[in-house]
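Internal tracking record. Fields below are filled automatically when a chain is submitted to the structure queue. Please do not edit lines marked as system-generated. If the sequence contains nonstandard residues, flag them in the REMARKS field before resubmitting.
Queue: standard
Priority: normal
Entity type: single polypeptide chain
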Amino acid sequence: MKLLVINPNTTQAVTDTVVRAAREAASRGTRIVGVTGHEGPAVISSRAGSERAKPECLALARRHARGCDAILLGVSLDIALAELRARHRIPVLGMTESGCRVVASLAPRFGVLIFGSHMVPLYRSILRGYGFGRRLAGVDAVDFHPTAVFLEPERVGRATLRKVKALQAKGAGAVVLAGAVYAGMNRILQPLSALPLVDGMASAVLLAEALVRERAR
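SYSTEM-GENERATED OUTPUT FOLLOWS
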């Protein structure tokens, strides 16, 4: 099985992060291939940046999806998800949608944690569009630039755990760590958290593998 991970921004470190998390979650025999955008935002952190990255996302899929069994979006805004599903016959998974589908099986109500409080309304809109509005205990944010994960990981980790506690106080029984740069961090923080922490990229891999196997049957 071959899964294509698309990062439509131009920062290779983000691709490396989501691909590493995908490979850690993948079953034996599943091959993960990551591709990075050549044009557009270095890091997508706004609605405008999301729109700018959409053409590159579609172009990367067009160039690299041949021979792959599924496409995974390595960007937490799930950019161009509907368009990609309309254009490709293989499963297409968004990491945030996937994380929410997994976390919804763990708790009646859940929280979503992102980077940048200015992005909270956009994520709420996306999640309502997926049908998760009534299950959301809250969407919260750590106010760091996403690159802080690479520069100050311990500081980001402490802030993340504080926000997880705040979401728990709002009624969350589990939390999705959204944001591509969060990929894999749940493994580090889980021993320190009272709530299950769900990784969007790992969730996308697990769901993609299940869908590919089901199609093969």
